[in-house]
Amino acid sequence: MPEQLSIFELISNASLLVQIVMGLLMLASVASWMMIFQRWFFLRRASRDMERFEDHFWSGIDLRQLYTELDGGDDLSGIESVFVAGFREFTRMSEQVGADTEAIMQGVQRAMRVAVNREEERLERSLPFLATVGSTSPYVGLFGTVWGIMNSFRSLANMSQATLASVAPGISEALVATAMGLFAAIPAVIGYNRFSARVDVLMNRYEVFSDELTSILQRAAHARTQTKGG
Amino acid sequence: MTLLRDQFLPLVLALAVHAAAVLALVGGFQPEREISQVIKPKIVNSTLLVLEPKAKPAPAPKPRAQEPAPAPAKPKPVTKPTPVASKPKPDPEAIRREAEARIQEQKERLRQERLKRLAEQSFADALAAESDAMDTADDDAVALSYQQGIMQLIVANWSRPPSARNGMQARLLVELVPTGEVVGVSVVESSGNGAFDRSAEQAVRKAHRFEVPKDPALFEEKFRRMYLLFQPEDLLR
Hints:
The complex is a heterodimer of chains A (230) and B (237). Chain A has 230 residues and is mainly α. Chain A has one domain (7-229). Helix content of chain A is 85%, strand content 0%. Chain A has helices spanning 7-13, 16-57, 63-72, 78-95, 101-123, 127-156, 164-229. In chain B, 65% of the residues lie in helices and 9% in strands. Chain B has a 3-stranded antiparallel sheet with strand order 2-1-3. The two termini of chain B are 67 Å apart. The A-B interface holds A 1, 4-8, 26, 29-31, 33-38, 41-42, 183 and B 6-7, 9-11, 13-15, 17-18, 21, 25-26, 29-30, 33, 36-37.
């Protein structure tokens, strides 16, 4: 056999539709790897920020001082923005005359829930894309393969002597599409599972933190109404 | 700015991953193909066989040409006694010597001519023998290549019955005409299994026409009537 069946020849000899499918899968693969790296860096930074903030928070620092420190900065990490939202609501509500503890705490909880939800949205960005790539690209690849095999068998019908050598290249080039689909899907699925687990862990910690902050602020609000009343 | 930084590094890393995958694929894809190329040299071998006898003739005749030389050298001592015998006669020594010298010269010339002729003849004989050997070797090589072609065609057309077992063998007589058409197939030696014999016969009939040498002498000798041995092991390869 004089000609070398290189992978590039297989791809360039494939029919147009199969080539389109391959191109699509290649794009999906590059994009999903991009998302994987981006999410990886982002989540690593988020959990590092979380730990640093919690250390800072529980070091016995005055909350009002922490708030003024953070409120000026524009680049707030996830947990910081939850804290800032809750504490800002608390100061605003407690400045109003006649606000009772119940109303203050309801406002604070609502503000923090909104902040947590916003953070969840930020953490989970582009995870749906990974899920989509992971679940559909095998099918897209399979579609390319079926189409390629269909064509190679159809061309076989025109030949008087049907040998394995006359169908094998067609099938081989069609199977490249399935290989590419799997190549795109496997990292995407692994990335999706891993990152959604990490997002869950982070969300859990945000919620625990917001509960803790609520109880601290409730204690403070209670003390304030007591002193006012007394 | 931060968006660029956030997206640029992941993009570069993603492209790096794909480049590495493509490289690994290209590196791992080649060697499988190279194994299949080893089968080729069959034809090259046969031409080499033809070349080999051609190189031989030059050194071969030499030893043969030398061999006759010692044989005629023997008469020398035989001729020598004549001058020795004539020597005692002292009468017209000069004339006799001249005559003897002439006779000897003539004898010498004759001997050398004979020698030369002998050498030439042996050389020609050697050449003829060589070319004969070459021809037959050539014929054998040609016949072999045609036989291989026939075998391949039959094997391609042969579908063994499920009852075929290792160790069975059927011998078939196949008769061809010079165009390569099959005119007669008969089982000479049955394998003991009717289905197997029939399948072998069918294989030859299905092939219908074989490629045969154009040379009529070679065809008559090897291809007009061919005995083919069918063994199921042949297909197990």
